[in-house]
Amino acid sequence: MDLQLKDKVAVVMAASKGLGAATARVFAEEGAHVVISARNAQALHATAQDIARCTDVRVLPVVADSSKAADIARLIDTAVRTFGRIDALVANAGGPPAGRFIDFDDAAWHNAIELTLMSTVRAARAVIPVMQQQGGGSITFITSVSVKHALDNLVFSNSLRLAVAGMVKTLAREVGPDNIRVNLICPGYTATDRILELAAAHARRNGTTVEAELAKSGAHTALGRVASVEEFARPCVFLASPAASYITGTALVVDGGQSRSL
Ligand code: NAD
User: Are residues 122 and 177 in the same domain?
Assistant: First the structure.
């Protein structure tokens, strides 16, 4: 199937590593020019060079913190000034801190709101006028399977990602007439560096191996294993592409059947 992404322009936020980097790479493999952002310039430029080396598209790295309003505005502005349009925005950020309700004060909640909720609000607000003017586009928010079922020890994710889900339902109806699609993608256990580091820490503590710890996480899923980053990135790029032209206002769960909710 042709995803119709050749010479399109995709912006992927928080993409020096993990799900964002894998998503940017698949966009590039499908022929889209990509703009990627992250806070760490060195890691971001290394990822941009890596993607550019393996594909024949333009890759523009823009240092930007997803939790900062001015950075998001500059990211979208730079993308438009460079490429003249944005066909797909994939809004992403690092995960909010893990912890229980009792662990966090107001300051911690405010930080998590900036990172997990306001980053999505600001990214959508910045890109919608661009997409309206060019006649359409897609916005995809990377969230978590926590949208479908609450995960232990992740009160920020369980709370704030539902606000993003509610916003997506509303926004999809408001901008549908402008030919702009808005969706969530909800990863489950996916073997990013962060997950591998956590598994390594658990392995040291439990006297096991990284593979054994990953297998424990994977055992919660129907498929019995964690996902590779490509298994997340491919459906993410499909959802953001013109090939998914009648899909909006929905949550695509990529969790290997971990969630039992309908
Ligand atoms: P990761 O830590 O591997 O990568 C995160 C990327 O975001 C890195 O490039 C990092 O530099 C960048 N980043 C972090 N904070 C940023 C910020 N404030 N501004 C700009 N860039 C920032 O994480 P990941 O596993 O790819 O996760 C991405 C998102 O998906 C997170 O919100 C995470 O909670 C969520 N998620 C991941 C999994 C999983 O299993 N990997 C599962 C469910 C949800």
Answer: yes
